[in-house]
Amino acid sequence: MSEHRSDTKSFEVIMATPERLSVSPGRSYRTWSREEKERIVGETFAPGANVSAIARAHGLDPSQVFAWRRKALASGMVAPLSERARPVKFARFEAVAGETMEIVVGDVAVRIGSDVEPERLAAVIRAVRQA
């Protein structure tokens, strides 16, 4: 153990004032007007829009734009789907081996033989979807 032991305890208080160094850049925050936010969020609801690409094009982090979208949807300012969009209907099917196959797209049934080329089948399904 140490031989020198003091019964008095003292401490020193250091007072400091923060100052920005001349070489340290200040952080600037960009403020977005309501109109700018509405315009950017509106772009993200276009058919086939990529939210991340739109955010980067405006110098934003994608998470910020996704947050703006959530707030806009929650407030009812925008609707997630256009009036033209139809809901997708899913059908349950059982895969069986056979000469014919039935594919249901919406309320249309397409029956095909096992000898149909995949390209032809894809063209038929596209035509049914567009109808």
Give a short summary of the structure.
With 131 residues, the chain is an alpha+beta fold. It is built from 4 helices and 2 strands; from the N terminus they run H-H-H-E-E-H.
What does this molecule look like?
- The protein is α+β, with helices and mostly antiparallel strands and 131 residues long.
- Among the domains are: 34-75; 86-131, no CATH class.
- Helix content is 34%, strand content 9%.
- The protein contains four helices and two strands, in the order αααββα.
- It has helices at 34-44, 51-57, 62-75, 118-130, and strands at 100-105, 108-113.
- It has a two-stranded antiparallel ribbon.
- A hairpin with a 2-residue loop joins strand 1 and strand 2.
- Helix 1 packs across helix 3 (62-75).
- It is elongated, with a radius of gyration of 32 Å.
- The mean pLDDT is 77.
What Rg do the Cα atoms give?
32 Å
Overall pLDDT metric: 77
SSE order: HHHEEH
**Taking strands numbered 1, 2, ... along the chain, how are they ordered across the largest sheet?**
1-2
The rough form would be described as: elongated
Task: Determine the fraction of residues in helical runs and give it as a percent range.
Answer: 25-40%
Give the N-to-C terminal Cα separation: 93 Å
| Main pleated sheet | 2 strands, antiparallel
